[in-house]
Every structure is written in C-alpha cells, then in structure tokens.
From TrEMBL:
Taxonomic placement: Bacteria, Bacillati, Bacillota, Clostridia, Neomoorellales
Protein family (similarity comment): Belongs to the CRISPR-associated protein Cas6/Cse3/CasE family.
GO BP terms in the entry: defense response to virus
Role summary: CRISPR (clustered regularly interspaced short palindromic repeat), is an adaptive immune system that provides protection against mobile genetic elements (viruses, transposable elements and conjugative plasmids). CRISPR clusters contain sequences complementary to antecedent mobile elements and target invading nucleic acids. CRISPR clusters are transcribed and processed into CRISPR RNA (crRNA).
UniProt key word Protein transport: no
Domain CRISPR associated protein Cas6 C-terminal: 121-246
Molecular function terms, GO-annotated: hydrolase activity, acting on ester bonds; RNA binding
Site-annotated residues for Transition state stabilizer: K54
Pfam families tied to this protein: Cas6_I-A, Cas_Cas6_C
InterPro entries xrefs: Cas_Cas6_C, CRISPR-assoc_prot_Cas6, CRISPR-assoc_prot_Cas6_N_sf
CDD domains on file: Cas6_I-like
Catalytic residues of the enzyme: Y30, H42
UniProt protein name: CRISPR-associated endoribonuclease
Organism per entry: Neomoorella glycerini
Length: 251
C-alpha cells in the first residue's frame, strides 16, 4: 500500500531544500505517526538477528527542478510529490489520517502544505514487471580490510552480488512480514537492469550512502514482488532508499 502526497510551499511558489534531505523526510514521517507506532518502529522495528527492519520506504521529492543556488540548496518550483510505501496497513492509514489532520509536513525548518493524499495498492498481475526507482536502490556488504578494520562495499545493478544481496534482503523481509521461510534457491528471483544506472551519493546523518537510480525488470513469485513494491528494494529503505514505481503497459 502507498500514499502519494501532493505538497506545496505555504508562501510563494519556490521551495528550497538541502540536497541531503532524507533525514528530514524520515523525521517528518515519524512525527506524523501515532506515538506508540512511531516509537515501536523507531526504537525496535521488526528484528531479524541483530538487524532491524522498519518495512517502509519513501521516494525523493519529485517536482519541477530549477537551477540550484550558490549555497548548494535544491530549488523546486510549484507543487511537489512524495510517495510513502509500506506493507503495514496500520502504518499507511495512521500516517495518512495524521497528515490530513495536520495539513502540513515539516521538512527541517520548512513547512509544506498538504494539498492532497491518494492511497492506492499497486496491482501486480503476473510474475514479471518493470519498475523504475523513485529513490536510489542500495545494496552493500561490510567487509574486512587485509590489515584489519571494516569498510562498506556497494554493488550496482548488473553485478552478481547485487542480485544476491537483493534476494537475501527481500527474503528476510518476507519472513518478518509473513512468518514464512523461503529457500533462496526456490525464490527464483531475477533482476535485470534495463539501460544505464545512475549513481547517487547521499549523506544521511553524516554517513555516506551510495545507491543507484535505474529501471529494472524483476521476475519472481507475486508475493515477493508485492513486498518489494510495498517495503522497498534493497537496504536502508526507511532512510529513503529503494522506493519503486511499477511501469504500466510495458509489454
């Protein structure tokens, strides 16, 4: 399930935001959830070993971009669109209700008026679809340097490790959501990059994160495809990564 939120500047027609605004969007989402739900997701989430999954994702801000300012800010003219997605119905209904009641979304020091909210479920009819990213897909591993110390290795669409990381991540989410274990070999998940990918480097609370904007052809069981669309593809979804949009009439 997803919300498509239409936003607008409260004064004038211009919105200026810092390039690394993911943290502000994440904070705005938590601020518009009921306290109990926000606290559960923020402090605990759905646990898988030492990892915590929040099972929601969101897009980048989408709108008419103007030339950036000398101070590095991004400049948008007119209305903005934001997609927030999750398989948790309570999350979507609670967030949508509170956003409508509040009438605005606080993005750092900026207040954006909420002009409309549309709730919808992406319809998936078969075991194959083409998607494009609304926020970068992140896949990575923490590796050990020969001399000791850790570093993060990021993978791009087309690499074998990219598919492996995507598959294992999605199966963990499926187990947390449905309680069912699927053997990776039985998942039969296929992901193929459609055209070039564009690397996006983002800073989130001082941490550098590398992801890719791309089009992907995904084949697999319908239940896994639904979860990828709802919860996000890859890692760090609740930080604003891996949000997807299904392309219609692609055959």
């Amino acid at each position: 399930m997803r919300l498509q939120v239409t936003l607008a500047p409260q004064h004038g027609s211009i919105t200026e935001v810092m390039p690394n605004y993911n943290h502000f969007l994440q904070s705005a989402i938590y601020a518009n959830l009921s306290p109990a739900l926000a606290n559960y997701l923020h402090t605990r989430g759905f646990r898988h070993g030492e990892r915590a999954f929040k099972l929601f994702t969101f897009s980048r801000l989408m709108g008419k971009r103007l030339k950036g300012l000398d101070n590095g800010k991004l400049v948008f003219e007119g209305k903005l669109n934001l997609v927030i997605s999750s398989p948790i119905d309570e999350f979507i209904s609670d967030l949508g209700f509170n956003l409508l009641c509040n009438g605005k979304l606080k993005l750092g020091t900026i207040d954006l008026a909420i002009e409309g909210i549309e709730a919808r479920q992406e319809e998936i009819k078969g075991k194959e679809l083409i998607v494009h990213t609304l926020s970068p897909v992140v896949t990575c591993s923490t590796l050990i340097k020969p001399g000791g110390g850790k570093y993060t290795c990021y993978y791009q669409p087309g690499e074998g490790e990219f598919l492996q990381q995507i598959t294992m991540n999605l199966l963990k989410k499926y187990y947390l959501w449905q309680g069912d274990v699927i053997n990776p070999k039985e998942a039969n998940l296929e992901i193929k990059a459609m055209g070039p990918s564009r690397q996006i480097i983002t800073t989130f609370k001082g941490i550098i994160i590398k992801g890719y904007m791309c089009r992907l052809r995904i084949k697999g069981p319908i239940n896994l495809l639904h979860l990828a669309i709802d919860a996000g593809l890859g890692a760090k979804n609740s930080m604003g990564f891996g949000c997807l949009e299904v392309e219609r009439n692609w055959r």
